[in-house]
């Protein structure tokens, strides 16, 4: 097979692992910086150009789209879809999962466990918003934040008001969520490929840190998830229309609650913690499912 990995940096761990895994299975693979692609959008012969030349035909593309580059990155993925190329994650599903508010609304529609979440525009509604999620302490999140950036724990009502007012003063869109105290700064990352949880790890935040992101000093270890957690992860990914994703959950007193779904999850943390060849699992999934013009996304929202 001919596989293209859409990534800004071929030296990144995840990109290198996917490339090596594809080569180990005797596939032709090329890393393409999607930001350097440009497109010819025509009715009968859509094409993608890279470094001044039209790209040859590929059997599949693996999108590794940075969160800050979602708009252009998904446009490139969509162009490949117009050309009949199989995408490990389809453009619409990536866009759906990257919009945190839309993602939570879709999961709520599907009856999937979530932390109580509030969203508002006007600052005069702050008191009611905080009370809606159960009062302080609350977690305040920027909709555009990633890797724990733009996530604040406000331990008192007044602190929450001050943070919300500051964010809104900057015209930033925010979510306010209940603080799951019983999680004790730990979360679970389930890596889902083709409707199955292929690996899972527990991430524990550092001393005094409620965020468990590995980029912020968190530590990870292999974990055996419960049937309910496994089902929640699979259902969440299916609701987004994704094929490959990382699902971050907290263990609350009322069961697993989903915090985020990542359509370009990193491989380094999960592979190091579990010893599982996740990159190989992704390539195996593509081998079994990559057929021309296979668009499966029919989710109406």
Mean pLDDT over the full residue set: 90
Would you tell me the structural class of the helices and strands?
alpha+beta
CATH architecture of the largest domain: 2-Layer Sandwich
Q: Characterize the main sheet.
A: 5 strands, antiparallel
Low-confidence stretches: none
The first-level CATH class of the largest domain is given as Alpha Beta
Question: How big is the Rg?
Answer: 20 Å
Distance between the termini: 33 Å
Write the element-wise H/E pattern from the N-terminal end onward. EHEEEEEHEHHEHEEHEEEEHEEHH
Helicity, as a percent range: 25-40%
User: How many beta-strand runs?
Assistant: 16
So how many helices?
A: 9
CATH topology of the largest domain: D-amino Acid Aminotransferase, Chain A, domain 1
Strand order of the largest sheet: 14-13-12-15-16
Superfamily at the CATH H level of the largest domain? ATP-grasp fold, B domain
Strand content: 25-35%
* Tally of distinct domains: 3
3D structure, described in words:
Strand 3 and strand 4 (about 45-50) form a beta hairpin. The strands form four sheets. The protein has a five-stranded antiparallel β-sheet with strand order 14-13-12-15-16, sandwiched between helices. Helix content is about 30%, strand content about 25%. The longest helix has 14 residues, at about 225-240. It is globular and about 60 Å long. It contains nine helices and 16 strands. The protein is an alpha+beta fold and about 300 residues long. Helix 1 (about 15-25) crosses helix 9 (about 280-290) and helix 2 (about 70-80) runs antiparallel to helix 3 (about 90-100).
